[in-house]
Design goal:
The protein has one domain. The chain contains one helix and five strands. The chain has a five-stranded antiparallel beta sheet with strand order 2-5-4-1-3. It is globular, with a radius of gyration of 12 Å. 22% of the residues are buried.
């Protein structure tokens, strides 16, 4: 388990860590719908794409994971900025 997310050792490609820019007001939220997450190649690219004035924040996330409602979610590991 990583941060409340159960990982499948048999299929590590399903839910894995990513660097991303998350379009959200930074708050105590720990999960984000796929529509708010733009995956980036690395931490430096995510930091370059961040713009807190426009609610774009660099983060390390885990995902995607499917919610019980069928929505693909990414879970916050840590903020980069």
């Amino acid at each position: 388990m990583k941060g409340g997310i159960y990982l499948d050792a048999e299929a590590p490609q399903l839910v894995r860590p990513h660097y991303a820019v998350v379009n959200v007001r930074r708050s105590s939220r720990k999960r984000f719908p796929e529509s708010c997450v733009e995956l980036m190649a690395d931490a430096a690219t995510a930091l370059a794409g961040a713009d807190p004035a426009r609610d774009l924040h660099a983060a390390e996330v885990m995902g995607p994971s499917r919610s019980s409602e069928g929505v693909r979610l990414y879970y916050l590991v840590r903020w980069l900025d």
